[in-house]
Design a protein that fits this description.
The chain contains 30 helices and 36 strands. By secondary structure, it is an alpha/beta fold. The N and C termini lie far apart (118 Å). The relative contact order is 0.04. The N terminus is likely disordered.
Length: 993
């Protein structure tokens, strides 16, 4: 079990590398893998724009450039380290829990972007273990995916534009400002290996010592605030630290102090970190269900409620503007369906100036087509080269502006506030502050639209939840004093340094005091019955805060909205209010006006203007009190109280206006002079344009020269085509003259190529190339070639079979895997060799052998054969029946066990002597019979030779001569008796004589 776990861990990649490429990407991919080691512990997934009409040979091509296994992606395939996976044609590829998933491409929704699709899934599934590489290609596929990979902590590499055959995709990715490295494909592997070896990339749990360098973090925040004017102190620490760690990994800094030194030495790093901290991931109609809910319920209600006035929306943290334009499109659709028209103004704000400039142009890459329905795309966008331009009637609905959500004042009289996926990056203190601002901005029953992972938190008393799933809220209309920006402590404040926990200490230090909340509630309750109308005004005559009912005193003017009280006050109080406020700011003393008649309300009011106590780091303010005068009562005469005289005040106002007019005239004169200077500059610019026109003419000539060069290149390609044609003809001739039937199949068992001789085995025509072999009939009798092909495809091991076809010819069929690289196969090869003559020779030899066996087995002689090693390897049937032993028992020296011990040495000497001389021999010995008795055998041995004289061994034939020996013995005995009888008779004769 432990071994299995270790193997699984070993197969798991350290990082998942997604490589996106399109036109011109093949060379870049090959160059990348040519320089990438095969044991990097990385997994590579290559996503290309492949033609749906032609079979991809990418597996075969790439297998020649790398020792890693190259696999065509399959549904449910587990991604392993040191492997390359290729997207198949007509499929979209995603990854989930480390497994590849395939889906059919859906072109009904417009343009298909397989690189963005995979990078999105990679970012969501692997987070910091995801690496995106964008290589040569046209269009902007991969641009959105790069943003998602970076948002989730991954790393991004992009091919240098100069080294790319087509720089559309690299340029689009680089334009986001997010790539960590811009390199040539040959340089990428080395940098990639360096990146994955950094300690921050490999540690699952960061070392507390590195993250507790509070002084270093504070210095980083100070640099960001100094260069970018943004304080990240109250952003969520996990997010900020993770992004800082990533930049430390990229810049190869070991500690935060090293990274601070790097930022000081390379000022551009500050801007890079700033961009990473502000990664804006957005798209048109992101979270479609939420926008559908808005279009069905909230937007129609807001449109109806805005009759007779302007409908105002605020999109906070709009990033590159997709969300603002989405709301504009929805509003236009709703108004068209309702048959009404409203003046709509959408304020879209963001802290990132570059993002605002990009959004204001309304020009988006063609990849946005994946987020838009064809109807919206055709109705509200028009094609502009390789991009889509937002229609003018939609752009005019949106006003883009740079705005700091934390520091800058909020907008007012807003019907809907959309702030999606920004609160999740803020600590609770800033979240409450932002929500207070939104509450201040929204009209009663206005709508708050948050991201799917966001809630109102501690500010739930201000908003009513309408849709929990889509995070849509309605303002309860409760006013609450917004947080004072001055209350937020700077990142370098020394009060935080003695705290044990950096971020927890900051949160505790700046949580709004409960006493302030109690005072807010007290003022709100008193303003209804006890307090007069009070307005706090700054030096720009802008209303900073209002307490009380402004009905009859102030009104909202038409046109662009403003908080200037000079434009909102009714005419009866406008002059005393403006002149009085300006005078109080100049003299720093309280001023009062009495008996100001308001004819529209049939009232007389007193106006009291008092300077507010000054505070450090705050702008000067005055409080304006509008108090309704008691009718019929005596007029109070106190120092500093002026009875309002319309004529006198009008003269003072006219005098002030004359001074302003004089100042305006002087400014106008200066402006005229500046315009004259600008006109001269424009004249110079016109001359430069003329010079540029001449340069363009020269460039045109250069392009003509380039065209000629391209013609030369075209001729070279034509020559290459001729060479390929000749090579093709050579191959056809080789297949034809080889007299071997060859059939080449791809991995799908489709016919790739075949030789003419194959027609005697398969019923093939030239038009059958590309058809499955399963559709073709054959003449083979005794074998299933399809089963053999499948077996070879499964096991990648070649096999051979002897087959017979219908015309009684025989072939040797060899089925081999089609190899395209080390341990990489793509199809099968079938080779058929005609062995009919061999089979006929074998049959003749077999017939001869059968005849020989018949002769020898029916012969009364005992026949044996030995090889050049002097060992016997064959005995005929007569021998085996005589000895009663088997062939296996007799082979070798087994037959010698039956030789009589008294005869063995003599026989061995005779056999060995003759064998060494290659001479005939004869010997008689006793051999044990199957019945157990020994019988006499006459053995005649003869040497065997090939036609060329090569010695092969001996053949011997033996005859049972036991009967003969017995007769000879009896004859000898008879002779002996006769001789004895003769001698005895002679003796008797002699004696008788």
């Amino acid at each position: 079990m432990t071994d299995i776990k270790e193997k699984k861990t070993a197969d798991r990649p350290l990082f998942y590398v997604a490589i996106g490429a399109s036109a011109g990407g093949l060379e870049a991919i090959e160059e990348f893998f040519r320089n990438m080691p095969a044991d990097s512990e990385l997994a590579f997934v290559v996503i290309q724009h492949l033609s749906p009409d032609y079979k991809s040979l990418m597996v075969e091509l790439l297998s020649k450039k790398t020792a890693m296994p190259v696999n065509r992606a399959e549904d449910g395939l587990l991604v392993k380290a040191n492997n390359v996976y290729l997207i198949p044609p007509k499929k979209n590829l995603t990854i989930f829990h480390g497994k590849l998933l395939l889906t059919e491409q859906d072109h009904s929704k417009g343009i298909n972007l397989p690189i963005d699709v995979f990078l999105r899934s990679l970012a969501e599934d692997q987070g910091e273990k995801g690496i995106a590489i964008i290589l040569s290609g046209t269009g902007s596929d991969g641009m959105r995916g790069v943003r998602l990979v970076k948002e989730n902590g991954g790393m991004v590499m992009v091919q240098d534009e100069d080294s790319a055959k087509f720089n559309g995709m690299p340029r689009a990715a680089i334009s986001t400002g997010l790539p960590d490295f811009v390199l040539t494909p040959a340089e990428m592997p080395k940098q990639l290996l360096t990146f994955i070896k950094r300690p921050y990339s490999l540690l699952a749990v960061r070392a507390d010592a590195r993250l507790s360098d509070e002084d270093g973090l504070t210095r980083i925040f100070a640099l960001l605030r100094e260069k970018c004017k943004i304080d990240f102190t109250f952003y969520k620490p996990n997010t900020v630290i993770r992004r800082i760690e990533r930049r430390m990994t990229v810049t190869q800094c070991e500690s935060i102090s090293d990274y601070v030194a790097f930022m000081n030495n390379y000022p551009g790093e500050v801007a890079t970190l700033f961009r990473e901290l502000l990664i804006g991931v957005t798209s048109f109609f992101r979270d479609q269900a939420a926008f559908d809910r808005l279009a069905a319920e909230e937007l129609p209600a807001l449109i109806n409620a805005a009759e007779g006035r302007e409908l105002r929306l605020w999109v906070a943290a709009c990033s590159t503007g997709e969300e603002a334009y989405s709301l504009a499109i929805l509003l236009r659709e709703c108004m068209d369906s309702m048959g009404v028209h409203r003046d709509v103004k959408i304020f879209a704000t963001d802290i990132d100036r570059d993002a605002i400039h990009f959004a204001a142009t309304g020009l988006y890459p063609e990849s946005v087509a994946a987020d838009l329905s064809p109807r919206y795309l055709s109705k509200y966008f028009y094609k502009r080269e390789d991009s889509f331009q937002v229609a003018r009637n939609i752009r005019e609905m949106v006003v883009f502006a740079q705005h700091n959500l934390i520091k800058d004042p909020p907008f007012t009289n807003i019907d809907l506030v959309s702030c999606r996926n920004i609160l999740i990056y803020l600590q609770p203190t800033l979240q409450n502050k932002v929500l207070d601002y939104f509450n201040f901005s929204l009209l009663q029953h206005g709508i708050l639209f948050l991201g799917t992972s966001e809630t109102t938190g501690d500010s739930s008393d201000l908003f009513e939840l309408l849709d929990a799933k889509n995070k849509i809220y309605r303002s309860r209309g409760r006013s609450r004093v917004a947080l004072d920006p001055a209350h937020v402590m700077n990142a370098t404040d020394t009060r935080a340094r003695g705290l044990k926990d950096h971020y927890a200490g900051l949160r505790r230090s700046y949580r709004p005091h409960e006493e302030d909340r109690i005072l807010e509630r007290l003022f709100e309750s008193l303003s209804v019955d006890y307090l007069p109308l009070i307005i706090v005004v700054n030096e720009q005559l802008e209303a900073v805060h209002v307490l009380g009912d402004t009905t009859g005193y102030f009104k909202i003017p038409s046109g662009k909205q403003t908080s200037d009280i000079s434009k909102m006050a009714v005419k009866e109080i406008a002059i005393p209010l403006i002149t009085g406020v300006q005078k109080v700011f100049r003299q720093k003393a309280e001023l009062r006006f009495t008996n100001i008649a308001l004819r529209s309300m049939d009232k007389v009011v007193d106006l009291r203007i008092r300077p507010m106590p000054a505070r450090k780091d705050q702008e000067p303010l005055v409080a304006v009190f509008l108090i309704e005068a008691q009718s019929g009562g005596p007029v109070e005469r106190t120092p500093g109280v002026l009875s309002y005289d319309l004529t006198k005040e009008a003269e003072q106002r006219i005098h002030d206006l004359e001074q302003e007019l004089q100042f305006t005239n002087e400014n106008l004169q200066a402006t005229i002079e500046e315009l004259e200077t600008s006109n001269e500059e424009l004249q110079a610019t016109n001359e430069e344009l003329l010079a540029s026109n001449e340069e363009l003419q020269s460039t045109n000539e250069e392009l003509q020269s380039t065209n000629e060069e391209l013609f030369t290149v075209n001729a070279e390609y034509h020559s290459k085509i001729l060479e390929l044609t000749e090579l093709h003809n050579d191959l056809d001739n080789l297949l034809t003259v080889s007299h071997i039937g060859l059939l080449l199949l791809d991995e799908n068992m489709d016919i790739r190529r075949f030789s003419p001789q194959i027609a005697t085995i398969f019923k093939l025509l030239a038009s059958d190339v590309g058809r499955p072999i399963t559709h073709i009939s054959h003449y083979i009798r005794n074998e299933d070639p399809l089963a053999c092909i499948r077996e070879v495809q499964k096991n990648h091991v070649s096999l051979s079979r002897e087959i017979q076809v219908e015309d009684n010819r025989y072939y040797l069929m060899r089925v081999l895997p089609y190899s395209v690289g080390p341990r990489v196969f793509s199809g099968t090869v079938l080779a058929f060799s005609d062995i009919t003559e061999i089979k006929q020779a074998e049959e003749a030899l077999l017939q001869s052998q059968r005849m020989f066996m018949t002769v020898t087995d029916t012969s009364p002689a005992l026949v044996w054969m030995s090889g050049v090693d002097k060992l016997c390897f064959w005995f005929n049937k007569t021998w085996l029946e005589f000895t009663g032993r088997s062939m296996e028992q007799e082979q070798g020296n087994g037959w010698a066990e039956g030789v009589h011990p008294e005869d063995f040495d003599r026989c061995l000497e005779i056999y060995t002597s003759a064998f060494d001389k290659h001479e005939n021999f004869y010997m008689r010995y006793r051999l044990r019979h199957a019945g157990g008795e020994y019988r006499y055998i006459d053995d005649y041995g003869s040497p065997r030779f090939k036609d060329d004289g090569e010695f092969l061994g001996y053949i011997g034939s033996c005859l049972d001569v036991s009967r003969q020996v017995e007769l000879e013995r009896q004859l000898a005995e008879a002779n002996e008796q006769l001789q004895l009888a003769g001698l005895s008779q002679g003796s008797k004769v002699a004696e008788s004589q």
